[in-house]
């Protein structure tokens, strides 16, 4: 071989090595840290986010971090904001054991049970230590009650660390609820379009176009709304009912999450977008005006006419004290299917179908 040919081959091999090294560097993910949980690329680690004690009351939040081998988006999956909502919780544990981080692009944050104290006591809506609804106290307060401190930890350790967020809910232990998704409108066109794609990718055909959420960053109230206000595309999903652990609801959650992951290129395949969504452009929750017993006269998914009687309330002596009517024509998205009714708590929700 001539010296000039040798030099050409030598420099060609050097160039290939440099290009290969550069490409390899681009394909390698980086370490991911949440709290004191440090996860290298291709690893899965579980642990707890501590919520500091105040007046002897503290708690912890069980989480898993799955850090993919390849770079990509950070998707936060939060279940158990209401501790009696089981299908999303079970879905996250199932996904934790089935997704291979070596084939994952990006990072998954699993918040398995956000409201652990509510879960432990099997209590709907509230934390048993301060009787606050965690999904009404975001973005939280580090000096507040236990629910406010949990919200603060979730905001600072989860919302602030992710690119996208799914707030996973279902019908609580008292709620007969059809599956639906909240698409929260921020007014930011790009952000809203991404959230819309997430809602369609999750796969539930009923989608509420929600323009009612507060825009106050200091009192964002809801986890999903908090993410949106901080310019993180997010959806809130509802799949499950009456505190059940039915397989259909669990699978609907797992399939929806995997489809959103495909949407963002985190795993291979195409998302299963809803082809025939039913858009809900207005919704209203009807609340109990008194304590007593609620008697529903219809079921979840029923199409009620404006003014139609859908239930009634009695006092503890059996006397009718309130009749409940549909505020407008629409689908009964959920209805309370257990007798206890407390003043100020929801009894049913109706959604108006958008005519296109």
Notes on the protein architecture:
With 356 residues, the chain is of the alpha+beta class. It has helices spanning 3-27, 86-96, 116-121, 146-157, 189-202, 223-229, 247-263; strands at 32-34, 37-39, 43-54, 57-67, 70-78, 105-111, 164-169, 175-177, 180-184, 206-210, 234-238, 278-287, 292-296, 303-304, 309-314, 320-325, 330-336, 340-341, 346-353. The protein has two domains: 32-263, Zn peptidases (Aminopeptidase, 3-Layer(aba) Sandwich), CATH 3.40.630.10; 285-353, RNA polymerase II/Efflux pump adaptor protein, barrel-sandwich hybrid domain (OB fold (Dihydrolipoamide Acetyltransferase, E2P)). Strands 3, 4, 5, 6, 7, 8, 9, 10, 11, 12, 14, 17 and 19 form a 13-stranded mixed sheet that branches. It has a four-stranded antiparallel sheet with strand order 16-15-13-18, with no helix packed on it. β5 (70-78), α2 (86-96) and β6 (105-111) form a beta-alpha-beta unit. α2 (86-96) packs across α7. The longest helix is centred in the N-terminal third of the chain and has 25 residues, at 3-27.
């Amino acid at each position: 071989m001539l010296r000039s040919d040798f030099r050409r081959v030598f420099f060609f091999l050097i160039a290939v090595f440099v290009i290969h090294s550069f490409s390899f560097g681009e394909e390698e993910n980086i370490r991911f840290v949440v709290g004191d949980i440090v996860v290298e690329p291709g690893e899965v680690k579980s642990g707890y986010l501590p919520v500091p004690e105040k007046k002897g009351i503290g708690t912890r939040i069980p989480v898993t971090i799955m850090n993919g081998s390849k770079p990509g988006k950070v998707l936060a999956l939060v279940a158990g904001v209401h501790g009696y909502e089981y299908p999303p919780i079970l879905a996250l544990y199932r996904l934790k054991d089935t997704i291979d981080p070596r084939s994952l692009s990006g990072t998954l944050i699993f918040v398995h049970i956000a409201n652990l104290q509510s879960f432990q006591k099997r209590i709907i809506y509230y934390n048993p230590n301060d009787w606050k609804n965690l999904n009404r106290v975001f973005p939280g307060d580090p000096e507040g009650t236990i629910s406010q401190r949990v919200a603060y930890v979730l905001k600072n350790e989860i919302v602030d660390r992710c690119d996208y967020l799914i707030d996973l809910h279902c019908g609580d232990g008292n709620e007969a609820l059809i599956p639906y998704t909240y698409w929260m409108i921020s007014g930011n066109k790009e952000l809203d379009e991404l959230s819309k794609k997430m809602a369609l990718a999750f796969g539930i055909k009923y989608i509420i176009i929600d323009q009612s959420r507060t825009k106050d960053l200091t009192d964002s109230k809801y986890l999903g709304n908090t993410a949106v206000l901080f310019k993180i595309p997010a959806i809130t999903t509802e799949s499950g009912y009456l505190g059940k652990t039915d397989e259909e609801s669990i699978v609907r959650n797992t399939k929806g999450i995997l489809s959103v992951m495909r949407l963002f290129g985190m795993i291979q395949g195409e998302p299963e977008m809803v082809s025939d969504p039913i858009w809900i452009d207005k919704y209203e929750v009807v609340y109990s005006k008194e304590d007593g017993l609620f008697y529903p006269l219809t079921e979840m998914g029923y199409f009620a006419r404006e003014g139609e009687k859908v239930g009634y309330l009695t006092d503890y002596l059996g006397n009718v004290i309130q009749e409940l009517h549909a505020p407008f024509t629409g689908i009964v998205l959920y209805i309370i299917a257990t007798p206890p009714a407390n003043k100020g708590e929801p009894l049913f929700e109706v959604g108006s179908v958008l005519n296109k």
